[in-house]
Amino acid sequence: MPIISQFYGIAIRMFLKEHAPPHFHAVYAEYELVVGIQPITIREGQAPDRVRSMVVEWAALHQRELAENWERCRRNQAPHPVKPLE
Fold first, then answer.
1. Which of 22, 33, 64, 79 could covalently link to 70 via disulfide, CB atoms 3.0 to 4.6 Å apart?
2. Rounded distance, CA 31 to CA 19, Å?
């Protein structure tokens, strides 16, 4: 599962040939969130509120890039890196 971004101890990943609906995984320590891309929603998982907020904020800033990476992964192509939250 390629890492497309990392910030504040959070790794953002996408699987190649992943199932619909479009989403990504955010991993922080022992926590994992599954986050929908359109619309941006926490679909599954648990994480501290601060981590959830940062992930949603980052996704909103990069929603177009996430959608493009989703399509790349569906075609079994490596996703492009996405700028981290600063």
1. 22
2. 21
